[in-house]
Amino acid sequence: MAIKFRRMKDKQEYIDKLHTESKDLSESIIRSLNEDSQVIEERDEERSSDKVYNYVLKKGAFFNHISKYQEFSAKQGYLKFLNAIEESYPKLEKRNIKKHYWLYSAAATVAVIFGLFLYLKWSTDKVISPTINHGISKATLILPNGKKISASSEDFTYKQENVSVNYKKGSFSYVGNVSSDSLVENTLVVPMGGEANMTLSDGTKVWLNADSRLKHPVKFIGKNREVTVSGEAYFEVAEDKNHPFIVHTSKGDVKVLGTGFGITSYPEEKAFVTLAHGKIAFSDNAEKMMYLKPGEQVKIEGGKWEKRTVNIEEYVGWKDGKFVFHNRTLSDIMNTMERWYNVEIVFETPKIKDVRFSGDIRRYESINVFLEALVLTRELEYSVEGKTIRLYQK
User: Fold this and answer.
1) DSSP 270-305
2) For site-directed labelling of 67, which of 168, 228, 239, 391 has its Cα 20 to 30 A away?
3) What interhelical angle do 367-376 and 330-341 show, nearest 10?
4) Distance (Å, whole) CA 261 – CA 245
5) pLDDT tens sequence across 25-77
6) What is the C-alpha separation between 279 and 237, in angstroms, rounded?
7) Could you tell me the CA-to-CA distances from 167 to 138, 171, 196, 248 in Å, in that order?
8) What is the spatial distance between Cα 250 and Cα 259, in angstroms, rounded to a whole number?
9) Could you tell me which residues come within 8 angstroms of residue 304 by beta carbon, excluding any fewer than 6 positions away?
10) pTM
11) Do 171 and 198 contact (CB within 8 A), yes or no?
12) 49-57: which pairs have CB atoms within 8 A and are 24 or more residues apart?
């Protein structure tokens, strides 16, 4: 599984217990096999993997311990078991290594059996939930006259005045020059379960996350280069010292010359401006100004804002295909999941909203992978009904 999620206070205790139990099992099997090595050595013709497999099952050591492991994840148990086997090898006398090469094969066979048994047991005991896949590249470009151009999997080119609007593999760009000096503005709208990126006329690149909007000119005119964002976006601004780049949001404005930064500004939620590189100035609606250095962030909540140092990936990693969470409440995490997977999250047990988790997940996996990782924390269970996911305290 590509994600590792644990409630912070339970993580070490869980790992320690799993390691101890796995090591006990491995030592029991090695000990059992050592005691009867002479018996198998006399049966050279029966040293195939099938014979070793049958022999191990008859010894009973494996199944005497198996009940202890049904509560653990198959993969975790399998990996810890392999580590324990490797730790046990040095205990065998070097002069017997060649003589007992079959023993290592047997141990490896047992490890495979062990992992497979737990996986099958775990799988058959669970109710299979419908798979909910990740978001895809899709967006709608709204022209000044209200015309809507939808984009998803098919590439296209659309003529707007003397400009060509190109769409290719999830990315918009403009080619050509607007014939007049009047301001012509389009709005790029990305729905829930979608994403898109755009190259503006000055070469600035913008990535838009799910449930976001970018109002922008087809051609920048005047002293400033100005756009308006709602939702979540990442900017790589083309440097132009004579024409500052300004991003307007409902929480304030960001002014830059050439830099990379992320903005999260959804209605009714905390807002963040995070600087990856370069330098920016943030001003709120009261026109207070704050400058940021790389790795710094402005957090805006309830009309109050503060500057702090953060892990950049946690706030802009989505652009590169990864969600990163550090000590985040389940409520905050699920807000992100709702938008990207276009689902409704229902907390049947409200108090679990405040449970905090840390971990990371690949953005382009189904949400089921993420949910199963949460279940492994032993904090909650879930059910899927269409596009609704219900979370319960375990």
Assistant:
1) -EEEEEEES-EEEEETT--EEEE-TTEEEEEETTEE
2) 391
3) 160
4) 12
5) 556 655 655 554 444 444 444 444 444 444 444 444 444 444 444 444 444 55
6) 11
7) 11, 5, 10, 25
8) 21
9) none
10) 0.68
11) yes
12) 49/105, 49/109, 52/102, 52/105, 52/106, 52/109, 53/109, 53/113, 55/106, 56/29, 56/106, 56/109, 56/110, 56/113
DSSP code for 203: S
What mean pLDDT is predicted for residues 346-351?
Answer: 94
Better-predicted residue by pLDDT, 121 or 154: 154
Cα gap 273→293, rounded to integer Å: 11
Helix (H, G, I), strand (E, B) or coil at 361: strand
Name the residue with tokens 């990782």.
Answer: 373
Which residue is it, tokens 């109050």?
304
Distance from the Cα of residue 118 to its chain's centroid: 26
Task: Output phi, psi for 277, to 5 deg.
Answer: -155, 155
In the predicted structure, residue 138 carries a pLDDT above the cut 90: yes
Which structure tokens are listed for 45?
Answer: 């013709």
Sign of dihedral through CA atoms 198, 284, 239, 275?
negative
In the predicted structure, residue 180 carries a pLDDT above the cut 90: no
Whole-angstrom distance, CA of residue 138 vs CA of residue 379: 35
